[in-house]
Design brief:
296 residues; 2 domains; single chain; eight-stranded mixed beta sheet; 55% helix; alpha/beta; N-(1-d-carboxylethyl)-l-norvaline Dehydrogenase, domain 2; Rossmann fold; 12% strand
């Protein structure tokens, strides 16, 4: 098995290190900083063969090429190599480029002629290396699993629809990154008021009370009915933040979302009764949005 990496930053380095340890014969890599000593040292330390141009990554007839570059360089990275791809090569993109960009790469550059995989990395590489959980979509996923499973890569097939994996990762990021930002706003205020531990313990008790799926259901269905009065509560919270010289960035966003939900009149649509399933709430919202778009 021969693997080529376009990009030799954290992703290329950590994955290469693990793959070579688990039996991959050779790994070749190109990085724009290939001639820098620190890049050479990293490559030498794990046995990666660093090359001086993108197309040279492909010259040893690699079985798999993995593009691992910053999102805004993904299209150009494929543009630099697509003319040099052999007929049987498996093409994998682990960048955080959007599903739209990855689809353009597949359709415009590869002409749908190569097996292509949209692979989203779902964990810390420094911990897992090449065994990091990966969700993957596209017409090359089955081959990806077949080729790389023996080397202990942890790949879950999402679908053959290119972009599904990236869309899952991005949508999940709304929550994961949003919660992090929200916690900063909560804890900055709580610590100033000397109630940090009590607030954390209170939140923990609520979140840990039920399985997370049940917590989601309760939060969404409850907010559908009570969004209007919660707008007023958020106004009071904003005042508290202002009084303590804290920027109410996330709280303002929460207030605006609650206002938007109130405008959907969900309370009336559910006859002032809490719906049983969060999906019913989202269906009502999406239906109204579709109707409004059609009327424009």
């Amino acid at each position: 098995m021969k693997i080529g990496f376009i990009g030799f930053g954290e992703v290329g380095y950590e994955m290469s290190k693990g793959l070579l340890e688990d039996g991959v014969k050779e790994v070749f890599a190109y990085d724009p900083l290939y001639d820098q000593d620190f890049v050479k040292e990293k490559a030498n330390s794990v046995g990666v063969k660093l090359v001086s141009s993108p197309e040279r990554v492909l010259q040893p007839e690699v079985d798999v090429v993995i593009v691992a570059v910053p999102a805004h360089h993904a299209y150009n990275a494929w543009d630099n190599i697509y003319k040099h791809l052999n007929d049987n090569i498996l093409c994998i993109d682990v960048s955080t480029a959007s599903a739209k960009v990855k689809t353009e790469i597949y359709e415009k550059l590869l002409n749908k002629e190569k097996k292509f995989v949209d692979a989203a990395l779902m964990g810390p590489l420094q911990v897992h290396k090449h065994r990091v959980p990966i969700i993957a979509s596209g017409d090359g996923v089955d081959l990806f699993i077949k080729l790389m499973g023996p080397y202990n890569m942890n790949i879950e097939k999402v679908s053959e629809v290119l972009g599904d994996a990236t869309n899952i990762k991005f949508t999940r990021s709304i929550f994961m990154k949003g919660v992090s930002a929200l916690l900063f706003e909560v804890l900055e205020l709580a610590q100033d008021l000397n109630i940090g531990d009590r607030v954390v313990n209170s939140i923990s008790a609520t979140i840990d009370e039920k399985p997370f799926e049940e917590i989601i259901n309760r939060l969404i269905t409850g907010t559908a009915i009570h969004s209007e009065r919660r707008v007023i509560e958020m106004e009071n919270v904003i005042n508290l933040l202002d009084e303590n010289n804290k920027m109410p960035v996330m709280t303002n966003a929460t207030k605006q979302k609650l206002i938007s939900l109130t405008e959907h009149e969900l309370k009336n649509k559910f006859d002032n009764q809490t719906p049983e399933d969060w999906k019913l709430v989202i269906e009502k919202i999406n239906k109204k949005v579709c109707e409004e778009n059609e009327s424009v």
